[in-house]
Design a protein that fits this description.
By secondary structure, the chain is an all-beta fold. It has one domain (5-125). The chain has strands at 5-6, 33-34, 36-39, 46-49, 55-60, 65-70, 72-76, 79-86, 89-96, 101-108, 111-120. The strands form three sheets. A five-stranded antiparallel β-sheet has the order 7-8-9-10-11, with no helix packed on it. Strands 3-4-5-6 form a four-stranded antiparallel β-sheet, with no helix packed on it. A hairpin with a 4-residue loop joins β5 and β6 (65-70). It is globular and about 35 Å long. The model is unreliable at 1-27 (pLDDT under 50).
Length: 137
Amino acid sequence: MTGPVVLVAAIVFAGVGGSGKNSLAKSGAPFVSFDICLQDESNGNILSFNSVTGAYSFTACQQALTVSGVGTVRTRGCVVTLEANAADRRLVASTETCLKLGSADLRLTTFPNQVFSVFDKNTANSVCTCGTPPPAT
């Protein structure tokens, strides 16, 4: 990816969220700028996040599910990790910006036996919108 990704659409929750720091689905919510985007080449799932603020949006495209919030970011060399924990979710993500690859796992208490995953083998081709996944590499 050559520049930051800017969210210019409404954030939609599908029965997930609630009040608190992990809920950004409020009228008049500010737009959030994401500079890291991971998109799974096979299932189309997307994780976009801001590597400074920890703001994130995870979309499971096939389930029409979007979860947003704020996590903790750590950067060590080319490796950027994001962790977010709340009563209803756990998100762990890591991207290797020099090699342009990354992965993420989201677990929700509302889906106790399911893990929503992203494995991006080439972040340079990530489109980061639901629809057609990026070409496999």
